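[SOLVED] Predicted holo structure with magnesium ion

Edit: marking solved, answer below. Original request kept for reference. I posted the sequence and ligand SMILES and asked for the 3D complex as C-alpha cells.
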Amino acid sequence: MKKKVLFDAVIFDLDGVITKTAVVHARAWKKMFDDYLHKREAEHGEKFVEFTHAGDYLPYIDGRPRYKGVESFLKSKDINIPFGEPSDTPDSETCCGLGNQKNIAFNEVLDTEGVEVYPSTVSLIHELKNAGIKLGVASSSKNCKQVLEKVNLLNLFDTRIDGVVSAEKGLNGKPEPDIFTTACDQLGVKYANAIVVEDAVSGVQAGKKGNFGLTIGIARENNKKELTDAGADIVVEDLEDIMGLGGLNSLFNQFSAKQPIRSAKCE
Ligand SMILES: [Mg+2]
C-alpha cells in the first residue's frame, strides 16, 4: 500500500542546491574583492589580505542578498564605504557598485561556461512533481530565473521568490525567513507542512527561524557542523542520501513533530 505523503511543499534554494552555480558565485566574489582590496592597498596603504572561501565567503557572503553580502564582508574587515543604490555603476566605490561589479564577473562565467545541475536534486524535483507536491524556489539571487531557464527547470516550480521578487516586495534576505515564508504563502501551504532545502548557513538559519516542518542542510563544503549549528534538522552531503520521496516522508515524520508550535499565515 502506498504511504500517504505527510508534507505539502518543498522549497529549494538554487545555488548549491539545484545548480552548481555556488562555485561560480564564489569565484566571481573572490575576483571582485581581491581586485578591490589590492586597490585599497595602493590607495590607502592597507595591507592586502586575500579573500578566502572558508574565512570570508562562507560566513559573510554565501546565501545573502548581493549588496548585503558586500556590506557584511566589508564590515568584518572594518572597511566603511557607503551602501549606495542598486543603480550605481560597477566602478562606484559603494556596496552596490562592488556588488554590480561581481555580477558582471558572474554573468561572464555563466555565458562562457554554462550551468551544471546536481543530478540527485533534479531527479528528486521530478519525483516530487509527479507525486503532486508543490514546489518552490527561494533564492537570494537576482539571476535565479535566468539560471533555471538555462537548465530547463523553470516551469517545474509553482512559485519563485528570488532576488528580483524580494526587491519588489521589500522582503528581508536570508538569514531572515521571509523568502521561504513568502513562497509558502504563495503556494497556500502552512509553514509547518513545508520542507526547506538549503546549502548555506544563512539559508539554514532562515529555515530554522521560519519554523518549517523540516530544514535540510546540504553540506557541499565539508561544513556539516556549521549547518547543524545553524539549526538544520538533518545535514546530508547530497540529496541522493535522502532516498527520494519515501525517505523525505520518513524524515518529515521524524522531525516535524518536534518543531515548536508556530503561527502560520495560511490556515
Ligand atoms: Mg545556496
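OP edit: Residues 9-20+116-256 form a domain with the Rossmann fold fold (CATH 3.40.50.1000). Thanks to everyone who chimed in.
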